[in-house]
Design a protein that fits this description.
Layout lengths: L5 E3 L3 E7 L2 E9 L3 H14 L5 E9 L5 E6 L9 H10 L5 E8 L6 H19 L2 E3 L3 E8 L1 H13 L3 E7 L3 E8 L3 H8 L3
Antiparallel strand pairs: 1-7, 2-3, 3-6, 4-5, 4-6, 8-10, 9-10
Helix pairs in contact: 2-3
Amino acid sequence: MASQFNIVTDTTAVEYEIKKSRFIGAIMPCQSEDEALRQLGLLARQHQGANHLAFAWRIRQPEGFITERFHDGGEPSGTAGRPILAPLEGESLINVVVGVIRYFGGVKLGTGGLTRAYGTAAKEAIAAAKLVPWVEMAQLTLEIDYPQLQLLEYQLKQIRGQIIDQQFTDKVRVTISLPAEELPAIKQQFSGY
């Protein structure tokens, strides 16, 4: 893979004030556009009195390409959504949505001020979040002998894989999830059984 992507595993929110307007930036993990919209809906319900909710997301599709969307949330065009998206791209974040809530404080910020404020809220939310490298996962089903199961469990633990399903007959049929790059080694090690 050409570039390394990052993800977040937990929702993180930060808040700051500029010229009496309160900005709350929240970064949330999501695996699909539907999930991103659900996360934003939850954020909107938590802040029903807010004047604006602008957002951006970057989601890696199963085919490998990345979908990006952004919305200015009622602010002047280009002053909110795009500045939120920029740091997501800069940090190579995927499978994430950032929403920025604004409670208007009565002082107009101007387009430059808005752009900076929304960008800062997004950057601060990203900075407060724990970024972890994204790892492409793969699934594999193996048939192994009983004595092999313990070795397989040990190997999976070493590479952050896991057993999703196992069925016991005369052999053990296991379905595992593991980092895609480990697939060839595990296949080779356990295929002769």
